[in-house]
Amino acid sequence: MGSVFYCDDESSKLFLFYTGVQDSDWSKSAIGLATSTNGVDFKRNSGDPIIADNDGFFCSAQALNPAVTRVKSRFFMILSGRHSHNSTRRIGIAYADDVEGPWHVIGELIKPSFVWEGDAIDNGCSIVKLDEETILVFYSSLTSRKVYDLFAFVRRYPIRRIGVLKVRIRGTSSSSIEAMRYSGNPLKHLNGPKGCWNESVFCPGYIKLSGKHVLLPAASTYSVGFPWKQYVGIVKGDSPFFKKGSAQVEKLIDGPLEKTKILPDIKGEIALDTPSPYFNEAENKLFLYYSVADRADAIWKIALTTFKTER
Questions:
Q1: Nearest 5°: CA angle at 43, between 40 and 44?
Q2: How far is Cα 287 from Cα 294, in angstroms, rounded to an integer?
């Protein structure tokens, strides 16, 4: 899973932070970095990950879903992880003085606690800047069939939903960072009914275009069984909170319909995840990077689709 980041100080480069895994079981994952001068051809910075093997931290067994922003003179990364294969996946934060590193893990921000969050949470691949030290992070659940979650137990298939986390960053120590999630399930209105293409929504990207706030969630219909059908949606709103009544989700990429355009040699169903947008002003196009895999081999790659935008 990857995300793109544009830095004003490095205007000739586009940075792609991505997740690398050892095997299809995700027994070990780490975060790498690649750069590009044209947004199409990327080159890895080195053969070594920028975040891996952080013993004692929340992401020592798994580090994934990097999303980067700048706060004053430093760069901060929101990421998901787990400290062992038996622990729950949670969300944490790292920082660097230079966008290319070295990166330092600060610690955990939140772990699953609401019933709707299930036993794992993943952050999306974009960050909203509210002010000089406050950001919004969209994150998604993976609801399991737990005894205390009666609806999930009876349903017998997962429903993924999106939450909102506010983070205030005043420094690089855990004591100088505050994390507050909005209670309940604030964006549950983006989920469609059973069997609908947006039955589940998760790991969204975000961008502001022409004065509108735009959310780009991955979506799936888990109720139909494996291999799941997956999509990318688009939501436009007047605020980054995408409140009910002012934001509606539409289909942007139809995975089952467009899978051979995305992966010409695909043999199974397509998997889609972590849409990450970047606006290319020179071409007046929205560049949308997203993770894709052929369910037949479970090898994840990063794809790019471009969209012409209105001026």
A1: 135
A2: 22
Instruction: For residue 252, give both structure tokens.
Output: 């942007």
Domains and CATH numbers, the chain: 2-308 (2.115.10.20)
What distances in angstroms separate CA 91 from CA 79, 137, 207, one per listed residue? 6, 10, 21
Q: How far apart are CA 14 and CA 53, in angstroms?
A: 26
231 in Cβ contact with 224 (< 8 Å): no
Q: Which whole-number Å values give the CA distances from 29 to 34, 72, 217, 293, in the listed order?
A: 16, 29, 23, 16
Residue with tokens 């509606």: 248
Among 214, 67, 71, 78, CA closest to 134: 71
Euclidean distance between CA atoms 127 and 67, whole angstroms: 7
pLDDT tens, 26-76?
667 889 999 999 999 999 988 788 887 776 788 888 889 999 999 999 999
